[in-house]
Structure formats: structure tokens, C-alpha cells
Amino acid sequence: MSAWQAWFVARARRRFAMSRECAQLLPRVCAALADPRQPGSDDTCLEKLLDWLRDLTELEPTLNVVRDNPCLTEFFTSVLALPEPSPSILSFTLRLAGLLAASEDCFQHLQQENLLFRLFGSGGTLNRAVWEDASVRSGWVEGVHSMMHHQPALRFLCNGGGIDVIFTLQGDPSLFVASAASQLLVHMLTLSVESETTTPLSEKDCNWPACAQMIIKHIEDSLQSGCASHINQSLKLLTSLFGSCRATWTEVLWLRIAKQVESFLIEDSVQTRHMLANLLLNMSRSPVFCDTEGSFWALVTSALEHLTPVQAGPLAVGILSLHKCPQDVRIQAMTVLLQPMDCILRAASQPLEYAGLLDESVSDPSTVESLLSSKSSCASLLCQTLAHLEKLLSLIHLPVDLPYTSLLRSFVTILQFCSGLLIPATPLGSKISQILIGCGRVQKSALDALAALSERKGCDTVIGSLFDILLVYLESPNTSPTVLKKSFQAMSKWLARLPEMSCFNSQWPTEKILQDVFLVLQKRLCSPCWEVRDSSLEFLTSLIKSMRDQDEFRESLLSSEVPKLTENLLEDPESYVRASAVTAVGHLTFITYSLPESAVAGNQYNKEDTTAKLQDILSTDPESFPRRAVISIFTKWLKQGCTGQAEDTEQFVSRAIQTVERDLDWEVRIGGLELVEVFCVQALCRVGLPKCPYAPASSTVTSSIQQNESLQIFCRAKLFKFLFWSLCDYDKPVGQKACDILLVLRASLSPSSMLKDCQGAGDLSAGRGIPWLQRTLRQGSLAQNFPTDAGNGVDFEDPESMMLALGTIDLEELHDELNKSSDHVEKSPQSLLEDILATVGTIDENEADCY
């Protein structure tokens, strides 16, 4: 065990160990919980109590915990003796007993006390009226699952009839209980095979362990029962098993049931077909099956052919995401996904005008055409298909080559159908057009897929029609705000690709499309709908981020009315819009900052005016969102070097933090600390101190001069008052951030030799206020009237005083205090036990932990 692991274990033991106080409280808690006269304890407290006891069993032998605390077994006996126990208490009892029985020694101990049979066997809980409560059945399943870590527990359950109870609970009316029962059977089957098998398994029953045989027979009987619910339960169990277990014996199991599963694909009943896609997909991800060339992949191909397009879609996209898959299966999966897009293209074209997306259809398109011509299924099929294609296109490493140009054409065609611009050339096209006009669901799905397709190359030939349809959506007054937002996102991604589209540039100059886009944007920035104005500003910010280095983009933007309109929106009545306007204006500065004044003079746009306006928003805006946006932009400016010379930067940072330190929003204050952090790193790098990773090493004399220079910079910018003040902030993240920055400054500015010098400097005038400052900081957020001047002997603008403060104050202690959980006292085991006693009314009021 490493030193770090040993420290962690020791820390956990100290935190969760059974203290003397807890050992005295636990018997009273158990007695109170088992007393029917007491009001029921809060379920959250019971969960925490169970968590604490679980932690105890992980840190020391469970049997020792039970023997040292006999009140636990007495609790089980008391609850079992109750004629009508509370469902929540009985559920807790079952879960606790299962937790303790996970240890084989403790399992034997509880068996000797005859507790496990009375709790989990046919003679106890199962025959009580309280079993009708789902929480009790859930507690029983969880308790059994917890104890399933050894063979005695397996034999206890199988020999005592408990496994039949689990089979029944697979069909429980509570979906939570039914799912937990299925997961329990998977766990038991895996445990049985892996702990009781000594020789390789075969398909014959005699080679399987007894418990595994019972579960496998149940699966086989259910699959052959003809009852849809029983078949679905077994298919869910198999899906979970093949998804979690990668052992070779799973293939042996599969060979026993493969023919029965395959028969579900060709039967007329479709009640179980929808379960097959997830089952086959989990199997295809297992190395046990994906490496085989046999019947499994033939079954996958059969499933892709026989399942409906809606059922086969998830299986197809999963198969296409695999890196190991036979080529013929991949072709079939691609056909499933591309068939709807192919039908869309054929429906929109004359028979000889376009041959379709698929060169050779491997399946009958009539099913897809029928779904697309039905109002009840058209939109759903297209949305699902588009979502699957978007998922594939978003993969970084796509293991299959898709026909990107044809896909782009099909996405554009769908958007044309939805906008009513397309004149259908076929009867199918006419039906699709009537269904899709104004369908927002399909529009959003198509735009998402279109945006994902922008990451792929090879679509240049139809790029003109792409921008045409996107401009239609951006211009149309019928476009809803949500569809408009997605249209902006798609347009932004495709515009970012303009420089690499040589084919498009020769047909339609970039300048032309940008002019059209900014004309539309000008209109949308003036929309009466605030969501539209907000989306427009986000679109502008996205464009600037991706295209600000391109001359044509800068010229088109600055020659339009967009910058002026954007700046006007800094005074928008809606706070979300003002925040987006701040971000957009801040990014506009990245363009104008490096340009000569003549290039931006015509736009009445200069950085000094912009900074003043943003500073005013930071000082006076009543909503927090715009103020957060301002401090975020200021930090971005500082990182990008857009704040001028060093002296200008000092003043800029100083003004910002003097405003931020009074802000009521903690995120604004922590944003101010992030600004300070960037400023400090840049200042240290500028003078060559080692905080900068590429700064050269310097001599001791030079280092002392550099430290003094840095200190003077920080004092002039009034950083230290803000940092020390933030240590006392009511919001802990602010204090943590300030402490982190101060620790970095001390490491950079105060070498060990100077720290020693500081220890004896208490009699210096500069150090008179340091003891007071230490006392104040220890009070944390309780400190009142933190000084804003040197009234208490602390001059936060004096370099010598601040060096003494950094060298004297125990920042590590403050750091530890600030990083403690705010409820570290209330989370203690003792506090929890006191809370439970207070809840059930058996503790004096002055003893309760009222927090």
C-alpha cells in the first residue's frame, strides 16, 4: 500500500470509526427504530445510517462490528417480533441484514441466530401483509443482492425457495422492483458460474452449477412460454447479462437459446421484437461475439431486415459505431439508416432526375415509404433517423464512410419540405410535403444533423442550396425562436468552413454570403422577441470566435450596422439579452483592438467608450447575468492582451476589482478573483519570476528586485485588500479561490529566507496590524466591518506590510478550514445518530443537533 493510500485509509477510519459516543448512542437508536410507539424516522436519515454502517464494514471485519454491537441483532429480532412493522423500517431492516450478511463469517453468525430465514425465507417477511408495499419488496431484493458475495448465500437462496420469489418479482408492478430483480438474477448467475465452475462449460445441463441451472431453465421456459411479458422479462435479463459480462461462458449460454430468440424475428407477433435490438447491440459490443464470424452476425443481419425501421434504427447506428464488424452487416445497417433519406430524395425528384441515395437497395423501400406517407409516423421516423445520423456524424473517428454529399442534399430537401418551398414531383412527395410543412420537430432535427455534417469534408458541390435554405429560415417571420436558434448554429458552423470551400468561392464569393447574413442579422437584432435578439447575439459571438482572423469577415462586419445595433442592446430591457450583448461587444473588441482607428472610425466604435459602458454595467446593472458577463469579458481581454500598456492594465484591473468587491453576486466576485489571478500570473511573468513556466532563472539579487517590483504592482492595483477581504466572504468558493491565489503569491514572492526574516518583524511599524488581521481572518465570514483603510494598522497598499502578511499569516490553516465541507460537523456519525433520536423523540431538546 502506498503512503497516499495508507493516509486515505487512516483518514477514513478516523472519520467513520465507531467512537465511544456512537457506541453509546447506537443501542438507543436501534431501540427507538424498533419501537412501534415512536414516530417513523426520516427516510433520508435511514439512508445515511445505512451508508455509515456500510463504511464501517469496509474498514473492519463485519463480524467484529456485529459482535461489538449486539444491538444490531437485537434490532432484527425486535422488528421481526412486531405484528405490523412500518414498511420503511422493515425495508431498512432487510437492507441492513443483507449488508451485514455480505461477509461469509457474519452470514454464518446470522444463520445461527435464525435471522436470515425469518427475514428472507418463506417463513418470514414474504408471508406478511406488509409485503404488498413496494418499498418492502425493494428492500428484500436489495438485501439479497448485497449478501450475494459467497456460495453459502447462493445455496441459502436457491434451497430455501428465494429464487422463485425473484422470478416472480421480475414481473412486479413496480418497475423499480422488477428492474432490481432482473439485475439480481444477472448477478447471481454470474456469481454461480464464476465461483462454482471448475471445468469449461458446455451446452449440457450437467456441467452448470445448480443455481445457474435454475436461472437458465427459467430463461428457457420463459422464452418458450408464448407469453409476451415473460419473454420480455427474459430478454431484458439477457440484455443486461451480455452488457455486463464478457466471459466466454456467455457464448455457451447463447448457443442454447439462439434458435428460440431468432424465431421471434420471423413470427407475426411484434410484441417482443423491440427488445431484440438492445439485446443484439449489447452482444455485438462483447469480444465474445464480435470476434466470431458465425451465426451471431447472421442473426444481426436478419434482425436489420425483419425489424421495423423504427425498431432497427438504434441497432443500426450502434453497429455502424463499432470498429469490428463484418462488411455485409455494416452495409445492411447503413441501408436501414439511409433508406428514409433515400426515399426523401426520390419523393422530391423526377424519376430520371436523381437516382437516389442508395446505389443498390438491400431491402424493400415500400415499408419506409408507407411510414413516410402516414401522418402518425412520418415525423417520428425522420426525427429518429436524423438523430441517429447526427450521432454518427458527431463521432471523432467514424468507422464507416457515409455519402456526405447525398446526406447534405437530403437534409436540405427535408428543410425545403418543412418550409413549403419544394414543389413535389411525385405522389409520395406531395403527401410528405403536406405532413411536414411547419413541423418544428423535424426542422430542429434536420438542422442539428446539418450542423454535425459541417465537420465532414466533401460536401462542396451542393453548398449553394445549403446557404439558400438557411437564409430562408433566418429571414422567414414564420420561423419559431427555437428553430431560428438552431438555424443560426448551423449557419455559424458552415460559415466557418467557407475558407476551405474553393468550389463554393468560385461560384458565389464569400463576401456575398456574408453581406446577406449580416443584413438578416441586423433585422433579427431589432426583433420584438427577446429570445430572437438573444440568439442573434449568440450567433454573432460564435461567428467572431471562428472567423475574426479573416479579412473578408472583418470588413463585412464593420461595414454593416451590426456593431452599432449590438452596442445598443447593452441597454436592452431583458437581462439575458444584455448579458449576451456584453459578450458580443467584448468579442467585437478583439477585432477592433488591432485595427487602425481609420478602419473603425466610421462605425463610431472605440474601445475606450466600450470599456466605460461595460464598467458602468458592472457597477449599476440590477441583474447578475450582465455583470457576470462583464467580468468574464474583462478576464478574456486581459488574457488576450487587449487592455493596453502595463500602466493601463493596472488601472483597468484596479477599477474592476474595486467595483466587484462590493457586488452581491458571488459569481461576479469569483469572476473578479479570476481576473486577479490572470493579472498576477502576467505580472510575475513580466518581471521574470518563476510562476511563469518559461521564465529564465535569475540570481538572488535580481530575484529580490523582481519581488519588490511585483509587490509594488499588486499594491498599486489594490489587489491585497480584495484578496484578504475575500477570505472572509460568506460564499465559500470565493474564499477558497482567494486563498489559492494568496498561496501562489507567497510561493512566488516570499522565499524561505524572507519568511524567516518576517517571523521576527513584529515590532516593525509595518507589522503592527498583522496580529489583528490574523484574528479577523480566523473569524472567516463572521468577521464584521472588514477595514477598507489602514485604521487597524494594516496598510494593504504598502509592499512591506503585505510581504509580512504573506509570510506571517497561516494560509495553509485557512485553506484547510475553507475546504472543509460546510456540513462537516452535521455529517459526523454522532450527529446522525443524535438526529435520528431527535426525530423519534427520545432525546432531550438541548442534546439534539439542530443545524
Structural commentary:
By secondary structure, the chain is mostly helical. It is built from 46 helices and no strands. Helix 6 (87-100) packs parallel to helix 9 (134-147). The radius of gyration is 35 Å and the shape is flat. It starts with a helix and ends in an 11-residue tail after the last helix. Keywords: Cytoplasm. It is found in: Cytoplasm.
Strand-helix topology:
Blueprint: H1 3-16, H2 20-33, H3 43-59, H4 62-68, H5 71-81, H6 87-100, H7 104-112, H8 115-120, H9 134-147, H10 151-159, H11 162-169, H12 175-196, H13 210-223, H14 228-244, H15 249-266, H16 273-284, H17 287-290, H18 295-306, H19 309-320, H20 327-347, H21 366-372, H22 378-393, H23 404-419, H24 427-436, H25 440-453, H26 463-475, H27 481-495, H28 502-507, H29 510-525, H30 530-547, H31 551-558, H32 562-568, H33 575-593, H34 597-601, H35 607-620, H36 624-640, H37 646-660, H38 666-686, H39 700-716, H40 719-726, H41 732-749, H42 752-759, H43 770-779, H44 799-808, H45 811-818, H46 829-840
Helix pairs in contact: 1-3, 2-5, 2-46, 3-6, 3-46, 5-6, 6-9, 9-12, 11-12, 12-13, 12-14, 13-14, 14-16, 15-18, 16-18, 16-19, 18-19, 18-20, 19-20, 19-22, 20-22, 20-23, 22-25, 23-24, 23-25, 23-26, 25-27, 26-27, 26-29, 27-30, 29-31, 30-33, 32-33, 33-36, 35-36, 36-38, 37-38, 38-41, 41-45, 42-44
